[in-house]
Amino acid sequence: MNIISWNCRGASAKGFHTTFLDLNSRYKSNFCILLETHISGKKAKNVIKNLGFDAWCISEAEGFSGGIWCLWKSAFWKVKPILTHKQLVHLEVQWENEDPWFFTAVYGSLQTANRRVLWEMIEDIAANTNGPWCLGGDFNSILSLEDSGGSSNLSIDTTRFLNCINTCGLNDLNFSGPPFTWQRNNVKRRLDRYLSNLDFTDRFKEVGVKHLTKLKSDHLPILLDFQMAHLEEVNKPFRFLAPWVLHEDYNNLVKRSWDNRNNFTQNIANFTQEVKIWNREVFGHIFRKKQRILSRLEGITKNLTFNPNPFLDKLQKELWLEYEGIAVQEEVYWQ
Q1: Is 170 helix (H, G, I), strand (E, B) or coil?
Q2: Would the CA dihedral through 73, 335, 272, 276 be positive or negative?
Q3: Which helix (H) or strand (E) covers residue 163, if one does?
């Protein structure tokens, strides 16, 4: 059981669909929060269905700004919406047959005055909530100088955020991974987080947060893992991979390995032998290649956190494009 929250900066953006499907499949999440989706209405519902979810609660985007999507699979989760607002969605949630608890998805306004309304709403929810409660998302505010790398003075908004947390009896959940969840040029902040009350951590003693690898959006996805268990890739037996046909060299491989003078069985045997070598040396196993790219992106994210580097910025963009191409190949693989 886990939850992914991601300010994706547009759910209809090029590459979003394959990127999100891959992210979600790697962490086996059947409850996701998407923020700043930038689309609403019928178009939003069509996108959600294509992401593999059959249930949702939405705070609609206003034009091309905002939007909170809470998505889940009803086979695993029972969800009762309690409050929907442009800055938060408050839910009662239940995993399978366990006892229900409360979750609030947050997208803090870019305007300080509007975030004051958010802090007041969270305090109102706290006053009327009994039992385990967790909040997660993009709060668009920091809690300490550490959240900005010491490069910014604390504002009145930070004071209000801290007062809200203390009033509500909330704690900032510990995390692993890069220290900042948002970056634009050389400005970095930890804007995305999960908070919870003591009832929540008493019940879910192994819960933890992981800041994941940056994927195109200027925000990192953040994972709420209830067991902090990391799923490893399972090796599968060799078989024909549909994505091979997308490679520019595939037709040449077929021509080299297929001889009309041989019978069908012999040609299949020749092709199988050739394609194993080609898969390893030319095509590259898509799962291993994807993992290498993600590892490189993770390393670049860590380096750029503390050291601006135009070369790494350029390499990051190139690797994102390569990652998107592999995500498309993997999508074909699973069809």
Answers
A1: strand
A2: negative
A3: helix 156-168
- CA-to-CA distance for 80 and 254, rounded, in angstroms? 55
Q: Structural domain boundaries of the chain? A: 2-225, 242-283, 286-334
Rounded CA separation 77/98 (Å): 10
Kind and range of the H or E run holding 102: strand 101-107
Q: What are phi and psi of 208, to 5 degrees?
A: -155, 170
**CA–CA dist 177, 208 (Å, integer):** 11
Q: Is 83 in a helix, a strand, or coil?
A: strand
Q: In 3-state terms, what secondary structure has residue 217?
A: coil
Tens of pLDDT, residue by residue over 180-234, are: 999 888 888 999 999 999 899 989 988 999 999 888 798 999 999 998 644 333 3
Q: What is the DSSP letter of 142?
A: -
Burial label for 331, CB within 10 Å (0-12, 13-18, 19+), is: middle
CATH second-level architecture of 2-225? 4-Layer Sandwich (3.60)
What token pair was written down for 191?
A: 């804007």
Q: Which long-range contacts (CB under 8 A, 24 or more apart) does 51-55 make?
A: 51/17, 51/20, 51/21, 51/24, 52/21, 52/24, 55/79
Single out the residue of 203, 214, 176, 209 nearest to residue 303, CA to CA. 214
Can you tell me which residue has the tokens 């078989």?
A: 239
pLDDT number for residue 265: 67
Q: Which two tokens stand for residue 123?
A: 């305090």
Instruction: Enter the pTM of the model.
Output: 0.71
Q: Hey, what are 272's tokens?
A: 């199988």
Tokens representing residue 38 in the block = 């930038």
Q: Decide: 136 and 65 in contact? Cβ < 8 Å.
A: no
Beta bridge partners of 134: 103, 196
